[in-house]
Design a protein that fits this description.
single chain, alpha+beta, Hypothetical upf0131 protein ytfp, five-stranded antiparallel beta sheet, two-stranded antiparallel sheet, 9 helices
């Protein structure tokens, strides 16, 4: 366990040192940016495409919702969740320089027109995402300036599979809003995470690891929170500390538990 914690922390330290002022992360708008306009066009690509989630659970009331495409970005599942249960959630990321496939170069979704108050509430409740200003295009060719949410890729978490429950929200939302048929087929073909059946000993080991993992993550979490605290932004400090802790948790899982229990976010199986 100690060596696993050390490797997770080392990966975190190395990644942090590589972030520069020219990186996409450094160019992003802080997620709590105030929107001055009366309305905001929000590009949704994940569960917020789903009407039951967006208008039901989140109680949003968009005045219009349009099927759009965002070019130069790809859909990824790099937002950490809980290993073995709900591993990952969706984000968008700038297309890689070597990308060639159609859906490595564009992401389809829904442009919701919502009030600035609704937008600020959405950003607060989504937590650790960054805000991006992006240019989308409707299927009729109308250019729209939208705001969307993007999550940086963490070194230990990387990308994992989303649950079948979560993928169903995306697929149903895409169909409801009439997104591109090829995009819907693409979503249908994305592999979903299949939970691993853990025995009593494995569950006990996971539970016992929580305390040591939190202690090991404390220095990185405190360092991440420092900028928010210095700016008097307690919410940012809390979110940054939480993200760092999540990444260490996944580092421990990847190096210690996954070889024993099967992947916490992949469909690898125990022999």
């Amino acid at each position: 366990m100690a060596s696993s914690l050390a490797r997770a922390m080392a990966a975190r330290s190395a990644s942090t040192s590589r972030v520069s002022s020219s990186s996409p992360r450094a160019r992003r708008v802080v997620a709590r940016a105030v929107v001055d306009d009366d309305t905001v066009l929000y590009f949704a690509y994940g569960s917020n495409m789903n009407v039951d989630t967006f208008q039901g659970m989140r109680a949003m009331k968009p005045t219009r919702s349009s099927a759009v495409v965002l070019r130069g970005y790809e859909l990824v599942f790099n937002v950490p969740g809980l290993p073995y249960v709900e591993p990952a959630f969706a984000s968008v990321r700038e297309a890689r320089a070597d990308a060639s496939g159609r859906f490595e170069l564009e992401c389809h979704g829904v442009a919701h027109e919502i009030t600035s108050d609704e937008w600020e509430y959405l950003v607060r409740t989504e937590g650790s995402y960054d805000v991006l200003d992006v240019r989308c295009e409707t299927y009729e060719g109308e250019a729209l300036t939208c705001r969307t949410l993007s999550h940086r890729t963490l070194p230990n978490f990387g990308e994992q599979l989303a649950s079948a429950r979560y993928m169903t929200l995306l697929r149903d939302g895409a169909r409801y809003h009439g997104l591109d048929a090829d995009w819907i087929e693409y979503l249908d073909g994305i592999e979903a995470y299949e939970p691993v059946e853990l025995d009593l000993m494995q569950r006990a080991a996971l539970g016992a690891s929580v305390g040591p993992t939190l202690l090991a993550a404390a220095p990185a979490a405190a360092s991440a929170a420092a900028s928010g605290l210095a700016a008097g932004d307690g919410r940012k400090a809390l979110i940054d500390a939480f993200v760092e802790t999540q990444d260490v948790l996944w580092g421990v899982n990847n190096t210690f538990f996954a070889p024993w229990m099967g992947g916490g976010g992949q469909n690898s199986r125990r022999k």
